[in-house]
Amino acid sequence: MAAVMTPAETSRQGHPKTDHSSRHDQQCHRPVRSAPAPVVRVTAAPAPTTRRVAPSPATYRRRRFAAALVVVGMLAMAGKAGAALGGASTPGTPPRGPSVVTEVVQPGDTLWSIAQRLAPGADPRPIVDQLQRARHGDELQPGEKIVWQR
C-alpha cells in the first residue's frame, strides 16, 4: 500500500494556510445527516428436498414378522406369569376341585412307597396314616387300585 502526500497550501508566512472562517461556516451550516442504517434481510434457506422412496414388499414382510414375534413373546410371557401366579386364566372360571390320582399296587410296594409316589416332596406319614385307616388294616395285593384324592 502506498501513500501519496501533497504539500498543503502555505501562506506568506510559511505556515499552512488555514481558513477558519470558511471551515467554520461549512461545519456549522451544513445540515446534519446521519448515515443510513444498513438494511439487513434475513431469509430462510430453502429446505432441502428429499425424495422419499416407498419401502419394498420385503421390508413390509420383515416388519410384519418382527411385530408377530413381539406379540407371540408377549403372549408367552403373560401365560407364564399367569401360571406362576396360579390363578385361573379368566375370572369366570370356577376353582378347580381336588384332583384324583389312581395308583396300582406293584409287587413289593408298601404303604410308605405308595405315599411317596402320591405326594412327592411331602411328608409321607400323614398319607400312610390315611391309607391305613381307609384299608382297615388289610394287606396290599399286587394289581390292586388305590384311589387318592388330593
The gist of it:
By secondary structure, the chain is mainly α. It contains 4 helices and 2 strands; from the N terminus they run ααβααβ. Helix 3 packs across helix 4.
CATH class of the domain at 100-149: Alpha Beta
C-alpha-based Rg, rounded: 54 Å
Shape: rod-shaped
Question: Strand pairing plus helix content: what structural class?
Answer: mainly alpha
Number of strands: 2
Number of helices: 4
- Tell me roughly what share of residues is in helical segments: 25-40%
The SSE string, one letter per element, is HHEHHE
CATH superfamily of the domain at 100-149: LysM domain
Distance between the termini: 112 Å
Any idea what the CATH architecture of the domain at 100-149 is?
Roll
> Strand arrangement, largest sheet?
1-2
Mean pLDDT: 76
Description:
The chain is mainly alpha-helical and 150 residues long. It has a domain at 100-149: Membrane-bound Lytic Murein Transglycosylase D, Chain A. It is 38% helix and 7% strand. It has helices at 20-28, 57-85, 111-118, 125-135; strands spanning 100-104, 145-149. Strands 1-2 form a two-stranded antiparallel ribbon. It starts with 19 loop residues before the first helix and ends with a strand.
Name the descriptors.
150 residues; mainly alpha; Membrane-bound Lytic Murein Transglycosylase D, Chain A; 4 helices; rod-shaped
Task: Set down the secondary structure blueprint.
Elements: H1 20-28, H2 57-85, E1 100-104, H3 111-118, H4 125-135, E2 145-149
Antiparallel strand pairs: 1-2
